[in-house]
Every structure is written in structure tokens, then in C-alpha cells.
Amino acid sequence: MASQIKDQAKTHQMSEDEVVEKVMLKKQAVKSFVPVDKLGEIAVFLSAENATTVSGSVFTLDGGWSAQ
């Protein structure tokens, strides 16, 4: 992701911090990227005994992006 941020900063002629805030997270309800550990937590949940009856479900971890 670091190279994508650098490329976007260059394209938009902004600092990397500005491009994250003003471009990449502009429409994001939660103004941060989804941490990798949160993705791991849902994977652990889905592989646990408590999730044996979960099927055909969608778990969206997008920081509110889809709520636009």
C-alpha cells in the first residue's frame, strides 16, 4: 500500500499524509484503513466452532465505505 500512497501523492501533488486524508479516505466513514488484525479476527471467528452455522453470509469490513 505504501507504493500506492506514494504514487497517489505524486499524481495529486500532495504530501503522503494529505493524499491519505483528502483522497484515499475522503469518502470513508471511518477515517482510517481497516487494520490487518481486524481481517484476521473475522477469519478466526469464521473458523471457530461458534460459526459452524454461518453460511452464505457476507461480512463487510470496509470502514463504512459501502455505506456511501
Give a topology summary.
Layout: H1 2-12, H2 16-24, H3 36-46
Structural class: mainly alpha
Topology as a string of helices (H) and strands (E): HHH
Number of helices: 3
The span between the termini is 23 Å
How many domains? 1
- The amount of beta strand, in percent, is under 5%
From the spread of the alpha carbons, the general shape counts as: elongated
State the low-pLDDT regions, or none.
Answer: none
The percent of residues in helical segments reads 40-55%
Q: What about the largest sheet?
A: none
Q: How many strands in all?
A: 0
If you average the pLDDT, what whole number results?
A: 91
Radius of gyration, whole Å: 16 Å
Characterize the structure shown:
There is one protein chain. By secondary structure, this protein is mainly alpha-helical. It has one domain. It has helices at about 1-10, 15-25, 35-45. The longest helix has 11 residues, at about 1-10. The model has no long low-confidence stretch (mean pLDDT about 90).
